[in-house]
Amino acid sequence: MKYDYLVVGAGLYGAVFAYEAKKKGKTCLVIDKRDHIAGNIYCENVSGINVHKYGAHIFHTSDKKIWEYVNQFAEFNNYINSPVARYKNELYNLPFNMNTFSKMWNIATPQEAKDIIASQIADLNITEPKNLEEQALSLVGKDVYEKLIKGYTEKQWGRDCKDLPSFIIKRLPLRFIYDNNYFNDRYQGIPIGGYTKIVEKMLDGIEVRLNTNYLDNREEFDAMADKIVYTGMIDQFYDYKLGVLEYRSVRFETEELPMENYQGNAVVNYTEREVPYTRIIEHKHFEFGKQPTTIISREYSSEWKKGDEPYYPVNNDKNNALYQQYKELADKEHKVIFGGRLGGYKYYDMDKVIAAALEMCEKEL
Ligand code: FAD
């Protein structure tokens, strides 16, 4: 065998594994079918602006160990995610907090906001929510639901809220303070210079082959390494023999505009049904850019078909049961370890994917 490990996928999970394996004196070959490293956290530099090619990524965690770990590879800026919601021509701060409520009802105090929400919930008389609409209404009342949740959620899922299961919205955090910080985590920021550099540093001194699909030559690759760390889709690994796991996909329409500042914020959600995209990202604002032009991406949520880029796993009962069947097959493999968001059919934030990779390294290396 030429290598101790073949790592399929140069995303965050694969890169953390390869970095830790190298530290322990193991040899790795990392392959990726794309023409770049970093998987979905890849940033492409266009006109001096780091464009988050596979969707906006904000690093946030409450885990001090993970924060220190990732800070070995980059310095982070002090970006705080504070999205704005646009409903028709009304603009609201997110997440739902006193700024949102004060704009919506022209009120000032937490008690006034609580009273309005409580009276709207009481009017509805919902005891057991039967669908997402009833669930959301019973948590936040009519105004917040209709202006800020309904249209956005329907675009995201491609379905009416009445036809979506209630479990999608288990709780909706309402904040009765004036605070637009989207995350509650202790640590937050964007790596200065972009995410790709983090992965570049992790893979420094490790052999990487791009434009290389494991599934095109699996016998040849299997013969090259003692073990395989596989971060691609688990159902595809098994040639979908038990069925296809479903995802939601996202289509990005990106353009450079000849102006310095288009929307004044990195993230603006369009919460009305009539606008076809869910949000517009203006990339330069993640890094407080002052470039003369700007780059924006409109995000359209779409149904995923085999062959599309998989983004969000649809973790309903049917897909979870199918994943369990694939996992049973995976658990019997001696040579292959499955990991990452596609190998585990799970939405992982970056901090969680690093934690999962490090946990696996503890066991494996
Ligand atoms: P990936 O990055 O997908 O890497 C897997 C790699 O494997 C890919 O490069 C792929 O090309 C390669 N591959 C697959 N199959 C094969 C094959 N057969 N042969 C060769 N190579 C293969 N997290 C946050 O913390 N904050 C955020 O703000 C945030 N925003 C997000 C926004 C969106 C739209 C999405 C979808 C996710 C977001 N995330 C965010 C999550 C973050 O993207 C993931 O945690 C992270 O990218 C997962 O890394 P990974 O290595 O598991 O997967």
CATH architecture of the largest domain: 3-Layer(aba) Sandwich
Strand order of the largest sheet: 7-6-12-13-14-11-15
Total domains, how many? 3
Number of strands: 16
The level 1 CATH classification of the largest domain is Alpha Beta
> Largest beta sheet, briefly?
7 strands, mixed
Which range does the strand content fall in? 15-25%
Helices, by number, come to 12
User: CATH superfamily membership of the largest domain, which one?
Assistant: NAD(P)-binding Rossmann-like Domain
Which helices and strands appear, and what pairs or packs with what?
Layout (H helix, E strand, L loop, with lengths): L2 E6 L3 H12 L4 E4 L11 E4 L2 E4 L6 E3 L2 H8 L12 E4 L2 E4 L4 H8 L4 H15 L7 H9 L1 H16 L29 E3 L6 H7 L4 E3 L8 H5 L2 E6 L3 H4 L9 E11 L9 E4 L8 E4 L11 E10 L8 E2 L3 H15 L4 E3 L1 H4 L6 H15 L1
Parallel strand pairs: 1-2, 1-10, 2-9, 6-12, 10-16
Antiparallel strand pairs: 3-4, 5-8, 6-7, 11-14, 11-15, 12-13, 13-14
Helix pairs in contact: 1-12, 4-5, 5-6
The site of flavin-adenine dinucleotide (FAD) has 35 residues, from helix 1, helix 11 and helix 12.
Family: Belongs to the UDP-galactopyranose/dTDP-fucopyranose mutase family.
InterPro entries: UDP-GALP_mutase, UDP-GalPyranose_mutase_C
Keywords: FAD, Flavoprotein, Isomerase
